[in-house]
Amino acid sequence: GTPAMINTAINNGAFMLQHRDHGGEDGWGEPAYNNGSISGLTNTDLSFIMSINCLTGRFDYSSEVFTEKFHRYTYNGQASGALGLIAASQVSYSFVNDVYVWGLMDNMWPEFMEDYGNHTINRKLMPAFGNIAGKFFLAQSSWPYNTDDKDITFDLFHHHGDAFLRVYSEVPQDMAITSPDVIIYGQNSITVQAEEDAYVALSWYDEQNGESRIIAVGESTGTDMELEFSELAPVGSTVLLTATKQNSYRYTKEMLVIPPDGAYVVRKSFTIDDSMGNNNGKADFGESFYINLSLENVGNENAENVVVNLATNNEYVLSLSLAEQVEFGTIQPGQVIGSTQKFLVSLDEATPDQQSLSFELIIEDASKATYNSTVSFRANAPVFKVSQVLVDDSENGDANGRLDAGETATLSFVTQNTGHAIASAPLAQIIMDTPYLSFEEDSFTSSAINEGETVNISFAVTAHPSIVDGTSFIGTFKIAQGFQFEMPYELIVGQLPQIVIGEGFEESEQYPFYNYYKGNRSQMLFKADEFGAGEKALMAIGFDFSSISPEEFRTLPNFVIRIKPTALNVMPNSYVDMADADTLVYGVAYQLASEPGWFIMETEDYTISGADNYVIDIAWGRLANWTNDYYKVNCSTNADNLVTYGYDDNTNYPAYPSYDGSTNIRPNMQFHFVGESAGQENIVTIEAVNEVLNVPVEGATVRIGSKDILTNTEGIAQISLFQGSYQADISHDDYHSPEAPLDILIEGSDPSYSVSLLPFYRVNFSIVNNWGSTVNDAVIKINDVTYSVGEYFFGDLVAGTYTYEVSCPHYNDTVGEFTLYDVNDVDIAVVIDADGTSVIDNSLINACIYPNPTNGSFVL
Q1: In the chain, what are the domain boundaries?
Q2: Which has the closest alpha carbon to 207: 161, 150, 122, 267?
Q3: Model pTM score
Q4: What CATH fold (topology level) applies to the domain 384-493?
Q5: N or C: which end of the chain has fewer CB within 10 A?
């Protein structure tokens, strides 16, 4: 064929076209139909294209790939390319993709392979479902010889287009459907007559929640079919009947849900009145709001004396008030009556985002008719997600993007509110629990985070100078407002004592753990500048596994990894002599990785000089059996050949396979080195003493860095610290904190410190008169300080003896004295005497005074 013949077939109305041969990113191989050929299409009755070849669906291609061009193509402003396509995103495999297509075709035309059996559900020509069915067929087939390529094929072929796309194989026809014109509320089903093989569904649109609800489905046999409702659509709503069938136009019909004769009251609508909250018309977490209801009488008679009750048992509704026997009065046919500021709901602060809240609505009228309904909506709350953590040491460090010992940096958690409500004042907190990291502020209330907004939640952190490079600290980041998000976080101070050489994603094939054969030997060359200057004590190496063998093939016999310095800069077309090499790893039966990712192997002690190139030799064998699912590791491409390898099934230990080839694709490796010593820790003892009583203070908090320690019954707190200078903050709820932190200096011995804490004394006055009545408007003067009217509690006094004076209009002044020493909380009861100037009503005696008020003379 030719490109012109293909265009002619499509322009003449072919409903489907399959190509099965070679392909590339810009088109088919034979015939050579490519992106440019598509411009000859003028047909607007689109064809479905089955592109069963290589690469034509490579959607990550830098330019417009063939499938994209075919799908997007227009002629005179109208779509004239493909209705949809199935194509491969990478190189596909002969025979394997053929078997896949057999299953795909049989799904759409079950008679294609009669021996394969019939489908429980026959969806006819729906290519997206055929795409899945083809992969299931391929999975169960034992025919393709290259079975390892099945897994690749499962991920290779993609459907471009609507997943429910149905392709017509002939000119579609209208369907004959018979159904009721209306649905009477209370019916549990309706009868529909549809053509054989038609799929019929009933649905209604719930405007309040913005979702379509399917209430019945069925497949017709050509006779009457009864569709039973899974729920009742409310009176006044419209139920949509939809029928589809292969090679038939879609059929739709609307049916109104109507009440029986008489009055019939339904919920017309409702709104959220959250004017007491953020006034956004939505139900937000922790809010109190009214549900303003509108009721409509959709019947043909008056509904008299209508009352409404609303109820719920939702765990997030803390209270529901003003919700019983709410009167709506008489509602005439067609009339809508609403409520204002009734049905008061209070939500829990912990209400999750998009939590469904459902309320039972019971409507009654004078005839005792009951019209049950529901009110349902979703609550909104913030949801937090952290996408990354940033370390900025540009202002107070060396700007290398990490926190080093002795530096102060900003630690920022990039936080997004993915919920549906604003977080107006979320509480952010970081917990590290170490004396070596100090935070300027480890918890604070953040500014508001709007829906969808991303902000940096930042903490200023200082690393103690004694921290050794590569030290890891594990902590927790939390942010909460209603919803709480927390994540573990590892902060590494300084440079890890390890390097990674190679960051590519090319996969190894015939080395170094290639157990498709029973034995393998490979050598890799690493250069001095890749290790960096200076000697390093090697302690472990690692490989980044991309594919894992089955469990029974994970043990490699006579496994050895050796290392040797070399002057080579490129690997030769032979193995390097490993005489005098040092052994890093050895195992008679070495257990290899069980999951993808970095696999770390501990090594014998070995020193990398920092000046030499090195050959690393990996050998093992012989396996009892080989596997198709062989190990692969991620590799990087280099300018020169840095790898040699060999493999076979026949070499017996102690011999290893001979040389087979060399390559510039070298496995990525990690090299772990021994870190510098952290040095000696010393025990620091801190004693907290009551300054007044000279006794130990139990339960005082000693904070060093972000580590809190409590003093014991003897007032002692101890902690082990590296040498250097530290500061400790001491606090207790019953004591004044020292004005300045305690300076700690460790120079080789175990230092001890004593801190005196001045107690808080809390004094509470209670004042009554001669008759035992509480007096709330007295003024108290303590020593020379006069306090406000009614101020009776004093929480900031120190030890000592005090005088007080209590004064109040119409009472004699009362004076006294108290001493604060060994009791922190002191209650003082004062009785004040009336001075006889007050004129008050007194029901205890049968007396009266007139005139009242008086002009100086009065009668008693």
Answers
A1: 3-160, 182-258, 272-368, 384-493, 498-673, 681-759, 761-832
A2: 267
A3: 0.65
A4: Immunoglobulin-like (2.60.40)
A5: C
